[in-house]
Design a protein that fits this description.
6 strands, 38% helix, Cytochrome Bc1 Complex, Chain D, domain 2
């Protein structure tokens, strides 16, 4: 393991303190996050437990980012941030009514203003990946399991209300709702174990989420997970 050496003066001699590089990286990443990201994101938790708190949320909570995201995606996205949700973090803050119909005012959905350097992105990525939920089960999804796309589509679009809030790509066409995050490229950014855990108990991660908790067998939950994270 790489180590950094920092001189420490003790009496009349010069000592060398050995500090693990990982610790230094995590501390640097935390400082960069505090300076450039913390004005919108919270890394401390917990998630809002009131509707007013949800409306005030400027950006997604990150206190379990290490359980949710893939590091490679975090590092890439923080260098060139673009909106993930076309309706914003909280869609009700961007709804306008015209001719009796509601729509999202895309002019009010803004990109993240912080664009990190490659070095900053690496250190922030390390810091965010250290923020893990200790209760989330690891390895619950068999990522090599083959699944039926037609069965998964039936579950996602007809048997359960997933499509009402999430956009997916079906036959090269994006379709679905916009109040939740799009899932067309979810496999690039999300950890399958977290997707499984989110489907299993949405309110554990976000007490005021609109996503319903539905009792599913492990097989169905895993099928939905594999469908969500599969390349589209």
């Amino acid at each position: 393991m790489a180590r950094y050496r920092f001189p420490i003066v003790a009496g009349s001699g010069l000592l060398l303190a050995i500090v693990p590089a990982g610790n230094a990286t995590a501390l640097d990443g935390k400082a960069v996050f505090a300076e450039k990201c913390a004005s919108c994101h919270t890394a401390a938790g917990p998630a809002p437990t009131t509707f007013q708190g949800v409306l005030r949320r400027k950006a997604p909570d990150l206190h379990y980012a290490g359980s949710k995201f893939k590091r490679e995606w975090l590092v890439r996205w923080t260098q060139n941030p673009t909106p993930i949700r076309s309706s914003g973090t909280m869609f009700l803050n961007h709804v306008v009514t015209e001719d009796g119909k509601d729509r999202i005012d895309s002019r009010t959905v803004l990109s993240c203003p912080s664009r990190l350097s490659s070095q900053e992105a690496e250190t922030v990525g390390d810091y965010l990946m250290s923020l893990k939920d200790p209760n989330m089960r690891i390895g619950v999804v068999d990522r090599n399991r083959k699944f039926s796309t037609s069965v998964a589509l039936r579950l996602f679009t007809k048997q359960y209300p997933c499509m009402g809030c999430h956009t997916v790509k079906i036959r090269d066409k994006e379709t679905g709702g916009v109040s939740g995050p799009p899932l067309t490229d979810a496999g690039e950014r999300l950890n399958p174990d977290w997707v499984y855990a989110r489907i299993e108990n949405p309110q554990y991660w976000d007490p005021k989420t609109w996503m319903p908790r539905i009792e599913l067998s492990h097989e169905k939950r895993e099928t939905l997970t594999l469908f969500v994270v599969a390349p589209k």
